[in-house]
Amino acid sequence: MSLDIKLNNRTATVEILGQQGNLLEVRVDNKIYKIDLMHTADGTFSIIEDGHSYDIELMPTGHPKKYTAHTLYNIFDLEIIDAETQYLLNRGGSGIGNSDNTISSPMPGKVVKILVFEGQEIKEGETAIIISAMKMESEYKSPKTGIVKRIFVEEGATIEANQILIELE
Questions:
Q1: pTM for this entry
Q2: CA atoms of 164 and 80, how far apart (whole Å)
C-alpha cells in the first residue's frame, strides 16, 4: 500500500514493503529503509533506523488526517494523503471534511465523548465530538457558528466511515 505524507511543504510517497512485528521495510520516495517502529503507551512513536533512535509525537488537529508532529528539535505539520483523500482532491474538493451543516468522520471508529447537546449554540472551530479510530482520538470541530440541530449518535457507539454524527442549523 502506498500513500503520500506531506510534512510542511514536502510531500513524500511512502510504501510499506514488508513487515515482521515491529520491523518494517519501507520505501520513502525511491529510498528503502529498514526500521523498528513502536507505538508507545504515552502516544509517541519510537523509530530506530540504522542505529539511530527517533521519537515522534503526533497531535491531532481536528482533521482526521492532519497532525502536528513533534520531534526533539522540530515541529512539523503532517498530512496523510491516502487514496480516499486523493480521490476527493481530484474531484475538486478540499479533501476530507465536513459539509457546512454536518460533522462526520471519514473513517470508522467509536464515539468517545459528545461535548454538545441539541439546541446548543456552537461557535465555528469549537470541538463538538471526540472519536477514537486507529488507536488515536480525534476532535471534530464545528465548521460554522450555529445551533446543534440533531445528534445522530451517542457516547460509546460504533460509527461507520462518512456517517453524519451531528447536524447544525
A1: 0.50
A2: 22
